[in-house]
Amino acid sequence: MQRTIRTFSINTLDRFKTNLLSWSQQFETAIWLDSNKYKQQYSSFDCALAVEEFTAIKTDYQNAFDKLKEYQTLTNDYIFGYISYDVKNDVEQLSSKNFDGLDFADLYFFQPQKLIFIKGDIIEFHYLNMVNDEIDTDFEVIKNYKKSLDSECDKSKNDIKIKLRIHKDEYHQKVNTVLEHIKRGDIYEANICQEFYAENSTINPLEVYADLNEISEPPFAVFLKMEHQYLLSATPERYIRKEGTKIISQPIKGTAKRLISSFDDAQIALDLQRDEKERSENVMIVDLVRNDLSKSAKKGSVKVEELCKVYSFKQVHQLISTVVSEIEESTHPIDVIRTTFPMGSMTGAPKISAMKIIENLEETKRGLYSGTVGYFTPDGDFDFNVVIRSILYNEEKKYISYSVGGAITAKSIPEKEYEECLLKAKAMKYVLLNSK
Prior knowledge:
This protein has 436 residues and is of the alpha+beta class. The protein has 12 helices and 20 strands.
């Protein structure tokens, strides 16, 4: 499918971005990806907006990767979408029987009629030829769009009551159960997650996303709208990226809060880099990622480019490692994802044993949380994030959900793990209780 590409230059970029996101709300399907100008080695654009399905695939986990492989191959165009955590059941003999209040499909991708990239101060319109006569009109409409975020908001106070699916004492018990598994040698590490939720509640998704993004300014932010279902994500983590024959994975393990004093903040970042427990968490997942990448890599090509490097975001410091590999040109892009999914940072090691333990201990089906959102290019390159620090919303069911988790290792202390969960949940809780 051929696309018409037109470029425009603009000097009121922040306003254009706000207008663009507001303009996108008229469509039933929209995905907005924003790097927030975060300086990173691997990047293709600052922002991207994909709207209006031309073709799409929506399926449960059964044969999900085979269906996606067929769809991506036949489409041979840009496709945007997500793979939920529960597609793990397509890769291994696993199940997902926990409570699900959101009802998202397990896997969804679509070929957008209209695709807009922002790169520096250049706006690129990539429209399917069937709608290319709308490029000039859309550019002018977006540039002069009258609706601001404020005017779209419902100003009446929305009393959201956030509940815990797992209470503090239960969480401590679950961590202790994981520690028993570790002592027995069943696993080395497992990522246990818990859900916070609100029922019979409504939000303005665009306003909540804007507030969440402003608080965090992460490199892999997402606003996803599929009719009445929304993902509002401020994730800092990349799952996997393909550039030609190079594969890049950047797992996060290790968290410390930001401090007001620049001296204290620098010290806590240094302490994080030296922290034995945090480093061991990260190194275990790096080993798992190396193993996953080796399944599709050329022999001897898996390398660790960065190990336990501190990256600083507005709310937290994180330990991030970068693992890369080379694949044969004949290797199908879907097979690279299939052999590395789900991402090690959200499961544990060994991966399959950890996933079985996770399923038994958690109370909520993860769904899109700890899954991935991203895109494929017509050349078969791709880039996918890890869905964390995110709010999920089903407008029809009036159900709001956000989940947080942490890696449990032999050195874990239940109380400290719980505190880390609350730190990670802070931004989502704040925007839900303070957005109008």
